[in-house]
Design a protein that fits this description.
The complex is a heterodimer of chains A (about 110) and B (about 120). With about 110 residues, chain A is mostly beta strands. Chain A contains no helices and eleven strands. The chains are: A mainly beta (about 110), B mainly beta (about 120).
Chain lengths: ~110, ~120
């Protein structure tokens, strides 16, 4: 049972434009959400997170939005750069328990 | 560098064999997680240890087992290997604490071990 879902396997965006990656979850007990970025042959690296008490968290070009009523979160990257091309994983946890990951979205930023 | 070390980086073995993957967590992290990533799949949670004790179990096969030692390093043992076990195996660690309240903290991943079963 996939508790965290990323329904778009891939996304292509022009350099300089906004990239929006989406994630849905089913478990209402999740209280912490994270985005990870993964390059080929490397482990995932932490990008940005948000607690369930917030609806937005911003870090430079990256902003994560959380809509608890819709059980949906999104990652916005503005402006997108070619170096952002990677697989992005959404993850969630409940009360500090294990992290549940989505299946990932492969982002390609076209120069 | 995440501070999480996994060895070996690559492993090729035959069906039916047994292998051990090793993970050294970041200094001070008590929680260790193991994940499997098969081709074109997401990160499947296998198991979590906290301070030497099993904390949570995911989709881990009975042929697989893990443990966390007093020095907090962890090993994932895979036995009676099948072709379908070929995957990337990631270890992650975090400073998650047992009990409440829990601080929000991310997990840091190692570079992974690529297992190929032939």
């Amino acid at each position: 049972d996939q508790q965290v879902k990323q329904n778009s396997p891939s996304l292509s965006v022009q350099e300089g434009r906004i990239s929006i990656l989406n994630c849905d979850y089913t478990n209402s007990m999740f209280d912490y959400f994270l985005w990870y970025k993964k390059y080929p042959a490397e482990g995932p690296t932490f990008l940005i997170s948000i607690s369930s008490i917030k609806d937005k968290n911003e870090d430079g070009r990256f902003t994560v939005f959380l809509n608890k009523s819709a059980k949906h979160l999104s990652l916005h990257i503005v402006p997108s750069q070619p170096g952002d091309s990677a697989v992005y994983f959404c993850a969630a946890s409940a009360s500090g328990n294990q992290f549940y990951f989505g299946t990932g979205t492969s982002l390609t930023v076209i120069p | 560098d995440s501070g999480v070390t996994q060895t070996p980086k690559h492993l090729i073995t035959a069906t039916g064999q047994r292998v051990t993957l090793r993970c050294s967590p970041r200094s001070g992290d008590l929680s260790v997680y193991w994940y499997q990533q098969s081709l074109d799949q997401g990160l499947q949670f296998l198991i979590q240890y906290y301070n030497g004790e099993e904390r949570a179990k995911g989709n881990i096969l009975e042929r697989f087992s893990a443990q966390q030692f007093p020095d907090l390093h962890s090993e994932l043992n895979l036995s009676s290997l099948e072709l379908g076990d070929s995957a990337l195996y990631f270890c992650a660690s975090s400073a998650l604490f047992s009990g409440a309240p829990l601080p929000n903290t991310e997990a840091f991943f190692g570079q992974g071990t690529r297992l190929t079963v032939v």
